[in-house]
Amino acid sequence: RIAEMAKVTQLIDNEVFRAYVTYATIILLKMMLMSCITAYYRIRRKAFANPEDVPFGKSENAKKFLRTDTDVERVRRSHLNDLENIVPFFGIGLLYALSGPELSTALLHFRIFAGARILHTIAYLTPLPQPGRGLSWAVGYVVTFSMAYKVLKTALYL
């Protein structure tokens, strides 16, 4: 049991792993913030998905607030895009951090991914003209594939 505890301590002492944890936490918090932004837009635009979500006007009166709104849907799509891209980053990024990359290379991957996701959200919510949003998405996607390639190269000796 003590030997297992030593292994966990070694993992925490690993600078690349700590960098991964740092940037994974940053983008996770950003993704969680999207829920708050969605709620803000729903209340501001008075556009709710369920009758029980309407904070004002109950029963029959609540039905007029059951509608879609373009701004609310834009925030929701941005949040869904986060789910589609950040979740794979968590798994691949963890494997990458454990594959023994150089700290400088790992930091470059993690920082570019986090920056790209933040820029993607800004481009989606502002909205900025294309290709800004598309490029920020593509950059994050390429970073994730780069880490996956390194993991496969290390694990399978590609």
TrEMBL record:
Keywords: Acetylation, Endoplasmic reticulum, Membrane, Mitochondrion, Mitochondrion outer membrane, Transferase, Transmembrane, Transmembrane helix. The chain crosses the membrane at residues 20-41, 86-114. It is an enzyme of class 2 (transferase). It comes from the Eukaryota. Its main location: endoplasmic reticulum. Pfam families: MAPEG. The gene is Mgst1. It catalyses: RX + glutathione = an S-substituted glutathione + a halide anion + H(+). GO terms for cellular component: endoplasmic reticulum membrane; mitochondrial outer membrane. The keyword Protease does not apply. This is Microsomal glutathione S-transferase 1. Belongs to the MAPEG family. It is found in: Endoplasmic reticulum membrane; Mitochondrion outer membrane. Gene3D superfamilies: Membrane associated eicosanoid/glutathione metabolism-like domain (1.20.120.550). It is a multi-pass membrane protein. Homotrimer; The trimer binds only one molecule of glutathione. GO terms for molecular function: glutathione transferase activity. PANTHER family: MICROSOMAL GLUTATHIONE S-TRANSFERASE 1 (PTHR10689:SF6). InterPro entries: MAPEG-like_dom_sf, Membr-assoc_MAPEG, MGST1-like. Conjugation of reduced glutathione to a wide number of exogenous and endogenous hydrophobic electrophiles. Its EC number is 2.5.1.18.
